[in-house]
Amino acid sequence: MTIHESMGPLTGPGRSSSRAWETMARAGYAVSGALHLVLAFLIIRLPFSGGDADQSQALTTVGDAPGGTALLWVAVAGFVALGAWQAADATRRGQQASDRAKAAGKAVVYVALAGVAVSVALGGGSSSGGQAKGLTAMLLDLPGGPVIVGAVALGILATAVFHVWKGASHRFLDDLRATGGAELSTVVTATGTTGYIAKGIALGAVGVLFGFAALTTDADKAKGLDGAIESLLDLPGGPVIVVAVGLGFAAYGLYSMVRARYARM
């Protein structure tokens, strides 16, 4: 169901405006897919040449390309539109509380990504590791800080488990309309499954690091996506694991590209 359908029939300028809004929201999925492909490249190169692998670095890489600044502002517009769409969905009448919560959470994520894109476009931005440390240090200074950080860690771990479950169970297909052909459906299922599981693994590493920060009351233990991926390198067979996660992010990027066309809005 689209927003204009949930609000009742629209005609004339109202319907045109709603369609334009939906087009921009779908563009947000395409931008997300492109960023995941850049992230995949950054992750895969880590075992060989180092560097950072997070959303800020991915956006910086896009900005450094010819015409990159213009592309960053397109990304801002797409993320804002998608965030607004999710926010509107969270307030739609007839929604279950769990659906409202998921839509609201997605709205926050996309608006945050828009903020990062604006910062990078204007020449700023910081790594996810620095942001995580700053946030954790602030939380640890609060009364009951370790408990709060522990709760954040559990929330991230729950999100990680949800991603793995959604990928393994193919529940992400519920987010799509019919993709129009068995061959395409097979590709979508494969990329979605691989992508969601890979994101779940990466988020799980982030959650574990936040858990260590809570147990040790040391903000330096908390790291973002870049630090989490680097921590996977220390595991037995770490480089192979990291490359596999990078390929998973690439699969998620391809899935997001398809989602831009076939998402249920």
TrEMBL record:
Pfam families: DUF1206. Residues 27-92, 102-168, 195-262 form the DUF1206 domain. Keywords: Membrane, Transmembrane, Transmembrane helix. The chain crosses the membrane at residues 27-48, 68-87, 107-125, 145-165, 196-215, 235-255. InterPro entries: DUF1206 (IPR009597). The keyword Nucleus does not apply. This is DUF1206 domain-containing protein. It comes from Demequina litorisediminis.
